[in-house]
Write a structure and sequence with these properties.
The structure holds two protein chains of two kinds.
Chain A: H1 2-44, H2 49-64, H3 67-81, H4 90-120, H5 123-131, H6 136-166, H7 178-187, H8 197-223
Chain B: E1 4-13, E2 16-26, E3 31-35, H1 42-49, E4 57-62, E5 65-69, H2 78-84, E6 88-91, H3 103-115, H4 125-142, H5 158-170, E7 176-180, H6 188-203, E8 208-211, H7 215-221, E9 224-229, E10 232-237, H8 239-244, H9 249-260
Parallel strand pairs in B: 3-8, 3-9, 6-7, 7-8
Antiparallel strand pairs in B: 1-2, 1-4, 4-5, 9-10
Helix pairs in contact in B: 3-4, 3-5, 5-6
Classes of the chains: A mainly alpha, B alpha/beta.
């Protein structure tokens, strides 16, 4: 125990650096996947059949295969198979590849949630807008959107909390996120080696961060309770 | 000249004909009630008039202007149909109020959006928005909802919701106001307050088309009654004549239940 307390400051500062990378991946994924998911949702609901088939095919493949495999393929395929290492070397390249993988993967999950949300808004809402002379654009932004958001907040919260933990999968391409930082103390890092407790300790970071997210998303859900 | 002329309207869903060569005229200031059993095509006819369904055949004219002619493709495009819808208002069976807006906002929303498309909106913004709010408040007061304006739909009873929906339709000053079974989704004790409001509108000579299962109401409030069966207009005319002295066997059959009750 004494040893752990002595190692603690060094470990925490290293884990903080790793967690920053975790947080960056989390935020970039949300920024990319939230709008891309909407695009895929509209694609899969399109009356133009080839487009809807394509969107559904992509969703099927991405949701049907492990994110870890997707990470490996997206990171290594261009360099090893096509001999065109588009991601560049180093941490920046790994982050870019990880972000692209996560955005595509999460956009597909989000798209299904969006689709459920949009289709869950009664047809009568759209018709009421139409007979009042509104354009499709106005109907979406003034009527459907907020009702859809209200419907999707609970399932979205679930996905967002899963995303926090899923960022750890980027460890597989050696992205220096918090798991990587914790694991480094086993081999040796910052003068400490053979310590496994820092790896276990990373769980505290996830737990606290997800606790904060749960409170924030719960508040959003509460805010939308003013209508039914 | 009639305010509304409907000629030879036909409509099929997946090759099942729902409307078969329907035609009628409506004079300004008159109320017509459409009666008939479920599945007779009444609601589809209303939906065609509001362009929620596109008729396969036929012509719809308002004030002599051809709004829709199935044989003239230029009149059937979505982009031109949007403004034409404004000739009609529609009150739905299940209200379809916008749940995230208060009663007042429900009434004002469409009018505000239309006003924002006017070229002089920017300069006269405050004046225009004030006028819209005043008008909406007058309408809601007229509906007996002056103390309910800031309530959300889920805080209102069905009868109150339907009266908000009527105010919302009236706010755009349609030439013809359509009601699609306005009391069918209401508890029996709430139908009265909605029927009263519609009756008042009839007394003010609002041009209306009312699809209803309330037979006594259909007879008393309308200047003209249309009886539909199996997608056709079987009989139409003065309410007294249609109700007391129907000439068609099918009409007699349909009304016999009402007379017994």
């Amino acid at each position: 125990m004494d040893l752990i307390m002595k190692q603690m400051p060094v470990v925490v500062s290293a884990l903080n650096v790793g967690f920053l990378q975790t947080l960056k991946l989390f935020i970039v994924t949300l920024i990319g996947a939230l709008p891309l998911g909407l695009v895929i949702a509209f694609g899969s609901m399109s009356h133009f059949k080839p487009l809807s088939w394509l969107a559904r095919l992509i969703v099927w493949v991405i949701r049907g295969t492990p994110l870890m495999i997707q990470l490996l393929i997206i990171y290594y395929f261009p360099g090893l198979v096509l001999h065109n290492p588009i991601w560049g070397g180093g941490e920046a390249g790994r982050f870019l590849a990880a972000a692209v993988s996560f955005i595509i993967n999460y956009a597909c999950y989000f798209s299904e949630i969006y689709r459920g949300g949009i289709q869950g808004v009664p047809e009568g809402q759209k018709e009421a807008g139409l007979v009042l002379g509104m354009t499709k654009h106005q109907i979406f932004f003034k009527i459907t959107l907020l009702q859809m958001i209200k419907r999707i907040v609970p399932p979205m919260s679930n996905e967002i909390i899963t995303l926090v933990k899923d960022t750890s999968l980027a460890r597989i391409i050696a992205l220096q996120e918090i798991i990587w930082a914790g694991q480094a103390f086993m081999k040796g890092s910052h003068g400490i080696s053979g310590a496994i407790w820092p790896l276990f300790f990373t769980a505290v970071y996830y737990l606290i961060f997800n606790g904060i997210l749960t409170v924030l998303l719960g508040r959003l859900e509460k805010k939308l309770e003013y209508f039914r | 000249m009639p305010i509304l002329e409907v000629e030879h309207i036909s409509k099929s869903f997946n090759k099942t004909p729902v409307l078969k060569d329907v035609g009628f005229n409506l004079e300004k200031g008159q109320a017509v009630s459409i009666i008939g059993s479920s599945g007779s095509g009444k609601t589809t006819l209303l939906r065609c008039l509001n362009f929620l369904e596109r008729p396969d055949n036929g012509i719809i004219r308002v004030n002599g202007e051809t709004l829709f002619d199935a044989s003239v493709p230029a009149t059937t495009q979505e982009s031109v149909i949007r403004k034409k819808r404004l000739h009609f208002g529609l009150v739905f069976q299940n209200f379809n109020l916008f749940p995230q807006y208060t009663a007042l906002e429900n009434v004002m929303l469409a009018k505000k959006l239309l006003a924002a498309e006017q070229p002089d909106f920017k300069e006269r913004k405050r004046e225009i928005l004030t006028a819209i709010e005043v008008q909406a408040k007058v309408l809601l007061t007229q509906m007996g909802l002056d103390n309910r304006m800031d309530n959300y739909p889920h805080q209102l009873s069905g009868g109150q919701c339907q009266r908000v929906a009527i105010a919302r339709a009236l706010a755009l000053q349609p030439d013809i106001l359509c009601f699609d079974e306005p009391t069918s989704a209401l508890d029996p004790e709430l139908t009265g307050e909605v029927l009263k409001v519609i009756r008042e509108l009839a007394d003010q000579n609002t041009t209306m088309i009312i699809v209803t299962h309330e037979m006594a109401f259909a007879r008393d409030v309308a200047d003209h009654v249309i009886f539909m069966d199996d997608g056709r207009i079987v009989e139409q005319g003065d309410p007294r004549q249609v109700f007391e002295n129907p000439s068609e066997e099918r009409t007699k059959q349909f009304l016999s239940r009402f007379h017994e009750g």
